[in-house]
Amino acid sequence: MVSLAEKSAGFEHTLVTVEDHVATITLNRPHRRNALNYPAYDELEQSLRTAAADPDVRCVILTGADPAFCSGDDVGEIMAGPKPVSRAPMPVTFNATPAAIAALECDKPIIAAVNGAAVGWGMELALFADIRLASEKAKFGELFVKRGLVCDVGGFYRLPAIVGPAKAAELLFTGDIFDAAEALRIGLVSQVTAHDDLLPKARELAGRIAANPPLAVRHLKAGLSKYAYGDPREIGAWAIEKIRLLMQTEDHKEGVASFLEKRQPVFQGR
């Protein structure tokens, strides 16, 4: 079996370490505020799948190289650029972003250490974690509506269960960005720390989890996923269908163009 450390040795956009049964996966595109292009998505997916399969890993920390956690899709490359060459499909159980599936299917506890902006798909990534800790510099936002799109499975599947349907509707419909204090108030994160204390706090918590019987912890996670959140398969397939549909609209193209041109969008409803 290939270990997580071996698998990630050649990665360009993701840093991975394993220490005392805790894997730390760090998105490493700080010049793009850790926005994800196709290779970065692929490395994240591979890291999560390998962490789930590696018997030495008992807990996973997700974070980003400062100054951001993850600012979502790299708009210039993904939304405005050419699409990647297709590869053999992964053996997945529902239809959504492959990295999202890898996070949701990981049976090890995941802690998101949100050190800066977690917006767009970056907020989705934080939602896929079991526990979220935030630095005082963290920002959150479901920005998909600003690009004429719907969110991935996290916004539909996890967000309403965490903050309640009405608050989830407000965040999804407005695309507003909010700070760590608001995230704590609405229950999105469980702790807010000084920026320099974030990773030590996450590692201390991960260490306490990793010290417990790993089989029991995995079954606890499975129970929480089943009874707190329900089954993501149907909503995952629905969300990706709507994303594909909306990516053909003029409003989506205007959302992307206005972002790249740094101007206010004008949406026409078509």
Which key terms come to mind for this protein?
single chain; 270 residues; alpha/beta; 2-enoyl-CoA Hydratase, Chain A, domain 1; 6-stranded mixed beta sheet; 4-stranded mixed beta sheet; 13 helices
How would you characterize this protein structure?
This protein is 44% helix and 16% strand. The chain contains 13 helices and ten strands. A six-stranded mixed sheet has the order 1-2-3-5-7-10, sandwiched between helices. Strand 2, helix 2 and strand 3 form a beta-alpha-beta unit. The longest helix is centred in the first third of the chain and has 16 residues, at 38-53. It is globular, with a radius of gyration of 18 Å.
Topology at a glance:
Elements: H1 4-7, E1 14-19, E2 22-27, H2 38-53, E3 59-64, E4 68-70, H3 75-78, H4 98-105, E5 110-114, E6 117-119, H5 121-128, E7 131-135, E8 139-141, H6 153-157, H7 159-163, H8 165-174, E9 178-179, H9 180-185, E10 191-193, H10 198-210, H11 214-229, H12 233-246, H13 250-260
Parallel strand pairs: 2-3, 3-5, 4-6, 5-7, 6-8, 7-10
Antiparallel strand pairs: 1-2, 8-9
CATH topology-level fold name: 2-enoyl-CoA Hydratase, Chain A, domain 1
> Per the principal axes of the C-alpha atoms, what is the gross shape?
globular
Order of strands across the biggest sheet? 1-2-3-5-7-10
**CATH architecture, please?**
Alpha-Beta Complex
Please provide the ordered H/E string of secondary-structure elements: HEEHEEHHEEHEEHHHEHEHHHH
In CATH, the homologous superfamily goes by the name 2-enoyl-CoA Hydratase, Chain A, domain 1
Structural class designation: alpha/beta
Number of helices: 13
What number is the mean pLDDT? Answer: 90
Which range best describes the helical content: under 10%, 10-25%, 25-40%, 40-55%, 55-70% or over 70%? 40-55%
Q: What percentage of amino acids are in beta strands?
A: 15-25%
Instruction: Give me the count of strands.
Output: 10
* Major sheet summary line: 6 strands, mixed
Unreliable runs, pLDDT <50, ≥5 residues? Answer: 83-94
